[in-house]
Predict the structure.
Amino acid sequence: MTSSKPPYLVVSDGCGNVFEIPELRMAGMTLSGPVVPEEETLLPLPFGSDLFELPKRIPVGYHPKRREFVEVREYRGQQVYAVAGFMAPAYVQCYRSAYVSLPNAPRLALYSYTALGWRKGEFVAAGMRIDPDTRQDLRHVDLKQIQQRGQQMLKRYPNNRLVRHLVENCVCRYGCPAARNFVMERWECPVPTSPACNADCVGCISEQPDASGVTPPQDRICFVPTPEEIAEFTVPHLNAAPRAVISFGQGCEGEPLLVGDTLEAAIRLIRQRTDKGVINLNTNASRPEMVERLFAAGLDSMRVSLNSAQPSVYTAYYQPRNYTFDDVLESLRIARKFNRWTSLNYFVFPGLTDHPAEMAALEQILNDAQVNMIQARNMNIDPEWYIDLMGFARLSPEQTGIPAWVRHFRERFPALKFGYFNPPREDMGGI
């Protein structure tokens, strides 16, 4: 984007209509307050993104003539509300939507809320593309064809409970991009396995206590598939799909290491039948001894989820049961011992992620575990809830900005890859 004119503020009228206010400029929010987003943080709202009206939240914009940020409670006599963008996969947030919540504002659902503006006939978001891979771009989605292929999968595997779960629940009910790619026999195939978890993550997307005030966007799988059910459809996927990956550990389940015996048997069974593709594990890495067994069985890569590289912040969010942050680090060391690919599923939250203390802690992990990749994912949570719960308001205002954060780690760790998706073997550089 080459234009230097700042985008206009975007608001909603509360009835589903979104419009710009040309007298005011778009603002973004940091931990310490509103800012005018730098040009390098702006891009056209990606195709496939969503717009959210934020109930009982007053928009904040920048008044160029008065050179100050203003709350906008109404426009031309009409009450207005804040708006945010929920960016499509492969994009990371640079600033969140700028607003002031009313005292009775409901807690926001578990999505990310990116600052949004309007310029030259299009929406503009405060974000950046972090991965060129197009595997979840909505342009690849033909809903009619996906429904047809899903029904074909059910006929191909009539007695497989996991295939039925992926088609009827993940494809048809939730529109899961990974499950859609499974029925299209391409790229990464999800393999959920675990109904239980050993963490009580504040922003868990598959289980929430009633007291949280939010509804998880999906339900957990309610059974543990057998190794044969897993191998039955994943082996053909690994053999035939382009850039093939299968991944244990999905949003519709708990922690896969809790059914590690099943995973170990499934991995051995798969590798008896094919040596193609990548078998990946998305995990909280809470059980190092099980991680070692899975790598010994033939696991190719592991992605470990972190909201923070600082033990205290990690523990406050994950609320781990019967494991510690040190267990997570030990699992990463075990992966290095086996010379397997490791990624951090690193939840980006502007103001924390790019804070010097957090960056120093992340550097320490990268040095110690020699992680191959950072998969930058937006933190999906009501930002004010997260800030209050974690005590982030106490952080010093020294954030570097998300683009500068990426540049810093690329310069400091030249071999480190940045992305969003689990890479296929072709992108692993010989590991």
